[in-house]
Every structure is written in structure tokens, then in C-alpha cells.
Amino acid sequence: MSVRKTILVLAMSLIGSSVILAADDKQKAAAVSEQDGKYVDAEGNPTFKIQDDGTVDWYTFSGYRRYHSDCHVCHGPDGVGSSYAPALANSMKNMDYATFLSIVAEGRKNVGGGKENVMPAFGENKNVYCYLDDIYVYLRARAVGDAPRGRPPKKADKPQAAKDHEKSCMGS
């Protein structure tokens, strides 16, 4: 087989095997159902609900708080990135829910171009893994442009389901 044909076959197999994620946007992130104050999109992924007056659902507010207690040190305030780690408000546009969970729980190491980036695993940190959905919905709201920078001005009350989950997960 010629070199040119080999390259063509290789390129076609790479294109055929790659999964291209369409960027998340406001329409895809729209809440279609709610249970106990927790919203999901049409695909069943956790999402947010922000009222016209700026009131965010409890889980988005909780995600803001949890993000700023553990994640902003590397990823910058409001997910805008830093010289140390990428802007999650951008990378979340092309990251699905399962990938987010996997990266946060297991960590990730990227080496290339003379630079090494390491995302530590947070799978055993209760302050993170007990609130993974919350962090996800907050960052998703930032990524699609519905949540402005800074602390949400208003929040919904904490649902009993959130209290129960927190008690169960944190062991208190």
C-alpha cells in the first residue's frame, strides 16, 4: 500500500471513530423537568433553572459555593481559568456530563508541548463528590452564558431532598 493511501485510510478511520460533541447551548441546557428542586434537560442530564429575576435553583447556588471552595484555586473565580488551569466556563461547552464526572473523580494528566497539566482526582473528597451535580450545573450555567460572574443574587430554598442527600453522603 502506498504511503498516500495509508495516510488516507488512517485519516478516514480516525474520522469515523471520533465522536464530535456539539457545543452545549441554552437550548440544550433548558430544563424540561424538575423533581425535588433538581432540574434535568431533555437528555436527563442535570441542569439549572434561573428565574427572570435572577433567582437560581438551590443546586446551582450550591454549585457556586462548592466550586469556589475547592475548584477556583486552580480554575479561577467563576470558571474563567487561570495561568494554572483551563477556563471551565469554556471547556464545559464541549464536555458531556459523564466526562465531567470521570475527570473530577479520577483526575487527568495532559503532557505535551513542554507543558504538564495535572487535574488531581477528587473522587474521595466528600466536599467535592457529594456535590458533583451541583458543581456541574453551576459550571454549565456559566458555560452557556445564563449565570453571570459573581455570587448569584438570589437563590431558591434548599429542598429537603438536598438536605437528605447531604446528610447521607457526608455521613452526618
From TrEMBL:
Enumerate the Pfam families for this protein.
Cytochrome_CBB3
| SUPFAM superfamilies xrefs | Cytochrome c (SSF46626)
Query: What are the alphabetically sorted keywords of the record?
Result: Heme, Iron, Metal-binding, Signal
Report the superkingdom from the record.
Bacteria
Skewed-composition ranges (Basic and acidic residues): 154-172
Sequence segments annotated as region (Disordered): 147-172
Domain Cytochrome c: residue ranges = 39-143
InterPro entries under this entry? C-typ_cyt_methanol_metab-rel, Cyt_c-like_dom, Cyt_c-like_dom_sf
PROSITE patterns associated with the record: CYTC (PS51007)
Cite the NCBIfam families for this sequence. 4cys_cytochr
Q: What is this protein called?
A: Methanol metabolism-related c-type cytochrome
Organism for this UniProt entry: Rhizobium azibense
